[in-house]
Structure formats: C-alpha cells, structure tokens
Amino acid sequence: MTTRLSLFDSPLFLGFDDFEKTIDRMRKSGADGYPPYNIEQIGDNGLCITLAVAGFSMDELDVEADQNQLTVRGKQMDESDRIYLHRGIAARQFQKSFVLADGIEVRGADLDNGLLHISLERIIPESNAVKIKINSPKKNENNLQAIDVERSS
Fold first, then answer.
1. Into how many domains does the chain fold?
2. Residue 96's domain spans which residues?
3. Residue 34 domain-assigned?
C-alpha cells in the first residue's frame, strides 16, 4: 500500500479534494501534442480554443463539456476499400482534454477549413460574501445578579 502525500493533505486546505482530482486529470490528459491547438483571449470575458483537425469531418469530431472538463475527441475511419501506393497521411484518433475554471461556460463550436474553434465565456458571478455574526456565550444571570449585589453593598 502506497500513501501519496500532496499539498492538499494539509488541514489548511479543507474541501479541495475536487481540485486535487482536477490536477490529476490535467496531468493525465495533455501528454500527447496532437492535435496542436491555440488558446486566445477574446475581449474581456471570452476565450477561444482552436484545434488543428485537418482531415476530420464534423461527424468524426465530438466536443463534450462535463463538470469542469472540456473533452474533444476525433476518430477517423480507415477506408478499407482504398488501395494506397503511398500512405503518408494516417487515419488517427485523438482525445484532448482541457480543465475549465469555475465560471467558464462553453458557448459553441465551429469547424472551418480544418480548424475547430470552441468559444468559451467567463461568467462573472455576483458576490456571495456573507457576514457571519459572532455570538458570545450566554452568561449565567444568577452570577451577574450576585456580582451586582456585592457591588451595591
């Protein structure tokens, strides 16, 4: 049995279990550099992820957002009825995952000239700050009365 220690094992990081799982997903997801991609800022609250998916049709691509993870999959079918004299372009599959911060929403995806553009928007939440009332322990009224009687004597 192996015990794994991490920064999030500290008692100062309460409730960060999901964050640690997200980091593990990130570590596992992007090791392969295919397909190449860009991430660009669009305005104040917009992002666009562009993946180079030349050779893939819309039917061969899948974009899925689940919780805080965006996953793009591509699967080309090998056409067995073709006879190649030279094959330099292989049919391939890929899966690329992106971890999204809280408040990032996927707005849509477009395929244009071999580039898959995925539009994202950062939703600015309203402040959820809550003032917490600090209560003091209730004092025993009998003790207070006894103190008052001693002072008046």
1. 1
2. 30-125
3. yes
Q: What is the mean pLDDT of residues 124-140?
A: 85
| Tens of pLDDT, residues 30-74 | 556 889 999 999 999 999 999 999 989 999 999 999 988 999 999
Q: What is the dihedral of CA 30, 37, 109, 120, to 10 degrees?
A: 80
Q: What is the CATH number of the domain that holds 61?
A: 2.60.40.790
Classify residue 101: in a domain, yes or no. yes
Angle, CA of 94, 98 and 104, to the nearest 5°? 140
Cα 60 from Cα 78, distance rounded (Å): 12
**Are residues 109 and 63 in contact, defined by beta-carbon separation less than 8 angstroms?**
yes
